[in-house]
Write a structure and sequence with these properties.
By secondary structure, this protein is mainly alpha-helical. The protein has a single domain, classed as Tetracycline Repressor, domain 2 (Orthogonal Bundle), CATH 1.10.357.10. Helices cover 75% and strands 0% of the residues. It has 9 helices and no strands. The longest helix is centred in the N-terminal third of the chain and has 24 residues. It is globular, with a radius of gyration of 20 Å.
């Protein structure tokens, strides 16, 4: 099908398949991921956009929490932290729609959204505690890590910097190593602020 087809030919000039055929591979993966979730939504009789956002966020938080828990199992200290970062990145690449929902803050009064978010943060804070980062330092470290992971995932999805997937992995590993080694700066800053 030609992209420049005359839209006056029919009332519905493009089908969903047509639109997806013009999209990049990540656009397709996001659409497929969200379509699968939409099928689940309709089974649950969710009819409003806020309900949809809530369901996607809860499912994303729970899925990411399970992935982190599984991937850090039997790892300790900095190795557990690296495993958590890898789990976050891999989950985002495998489930881009659900992952995008986890980057939103729980802006609704939905108790299930808030509970799922709190459970995910509890899991992450347990990993940070293994490298002696706790409390507000852990909350800040998690914000930084989420931004770092999200930046790498968006770049990889857009294929904006590198050619080979191994180059993304290498750059991500180096970025996470810088993050891990830089965590003591949060403690130093916390001590400075207390004076």
């Amino acid at each position: 099908m030609a992209f420049h087809r005359d839209v006056r030919e029919s009332a519905n000039p493009f089908s969903i398949e047509d639109v997806l055929s013009f999209s990049g591979r990540w656009d397709k993966r996001i659409a497929i991921d969200l379509t699968a979730e939409m099928e689940f939504i309709f089974a649950e009789k969710i009819t409003t956009l806020p309900q949809m956002r809530n369901m996607l966020a809860v499912k994303g938080y729970r899925g990411l929490g399970q992935r982190i828990t599984s991937d850090v199992k039997e790892k300790h200290g900095p190795d557990a932290l690296r495993a958590m970062a890898d789990a976050m990145r891999n989950y985002a690449l495998e489930h881009p729609g659900l992952s995008a929902a986890t980057f939103r803050n729980a802006e609704s009064a939905s108790s299930d959204w808030q509970e799922a978010g709190a459970e995910l943060f509890r899991i992450a804070h347990q990993v940070f505690a293994q490298v002696e980062i706790e409390g507000e330092e852990a909350a800040q470290a998690l914000r930084i890590l989420r931004c770092l992971v999200r930046g790498f995932v968006i770049s990889e999805m857009a294929a904006s910097f590198f050619v080979e997937p191994s180059e993304y992995q290498r750059a991500f590993d180096q970025g996470i190593e810088v993050f891990v080694r830089g965590l003591p700066a949060l403690k130093s800053q916390s001590i400075s602020n207390q004076r």
